[in-house]
Amino acid sequence: MGVDLSGAGSGESGRGVTEDSPSPPHPPSGRAAPGIRFAGIGDEAAADLTGQLDALRRLGWTAIELRTVDGVAVADLDDRAFAAVADRIGAAGLDVVCVDSRIANWSRPITGPFEDDVRELRRLARRCATLGTRFVRVMSYPNSGLHEEEWGRRALDRMARLVRQAEQEGLVLLHENCSGWAGTRADRMRELIDRAGGPALRLLFDIGNGVPYGYDARALLDEIIDHVAHVHVKDARTGPDGQVRYTMPGDGESAVRSCLRALADHGYTGAWSIEPHTHLQPHQGQDTTGADGVAAFVRYGRCLERLVRQETLSDRAPAGGGRHG
Ligand SMILES: O=C1C[C@@H](O)[C@H](O)[C@@H](O)C1=O
């Protein structure tokens, strides 16, 4: 079937792919496989909502993941701006699959004010109801000088309280393998679930974060796959100069094909949401989406569609049916 399960990447995924490159035949609704739909984090295409919606429209996908609009986090938009965002997303026929919060993320160390996270979650509860999603992306607090044990104790305590709050608000927190106490280790992710979890805590698996954080994300996936409820598609490669560069999906060292295949084989349902990082790296304060962000995002999406249809799930029944079908 010609599938590269090594995940090493042919280096050719992005070659020759243009925004208008015809994809292999696929339903126009952005379905990757039965139960799996394509989505994208809108602000990786453009800061403004017009650009974000345009990118998804050009791809023909019906699902967006929201992080910021005009550079403002969803929780910080004023009520009028938020109402306009929600109306326009609805009018564009898009579903919101997840809101990416700053709760416990790289900008909020464990010694910072917990109240910021409680307040953000409270605000997002109302907003997620309006947007029609229950998923809120969180991390698990980077350390700032505490002993390892104390860091873990405080992170677990805070996360348990946030999970209880989410449950009361009807939300589900998705912990991302990124920054934080449980960000890079499967054993800690499982400990988080065992000790702080409940129905309101699941895992978000970002395929590309292993490269910048220096671990094997493909191996980590095997240990957490039962708990994965959402996926970011990202790929990266470390150059000879030690610099991490974000690549088209399949061209880096993240074993994108193998990860997607493992998820599909495991019966994963939900979104495969692109987070290219080629033009926006929020944690590095780098944003060049203004140049050709929408076109680049669309190229990335087309590249992923091709990778999935031709190299990853080529032996599967075509996608179809249902809202998540
Ligand atoms: O701000 C962020 C930093 C990224 O590296 C991470 O994967 C991502 O999801 C995010 O929101």
Automatic annotation (TrEMBL):
It holds the Pfam family AP_endonuc_2. Its EC number is 4.2.1.44. One of its GO terms (molecular function) is myo-inosose-2 dehydratase activity. Residues 1-35 are annotated as: Disordered. Residues 53-280 form the Xylose isomerase-like TIM barrel domain. SUPFAM superfamilies: Xylose isomerase-like. It comes from the Bacteria. It is an enzyme of class 4 (lyase). Gene3D superfamilies: Divalent-metal-dependent TIM barrel enzymes. InterPro entries: IolE/XylAMocC-like, Xyl_isomerase-like_sf, Xyl_isomerase-like_TIM-brl. Keywords: Lyase. This is Inosose dehydratase. The lineage of its organism: Bacteria, Bacillati, Actinomycetota, Actinomycetes, Kitasatosporales. The gene is iolE_2.
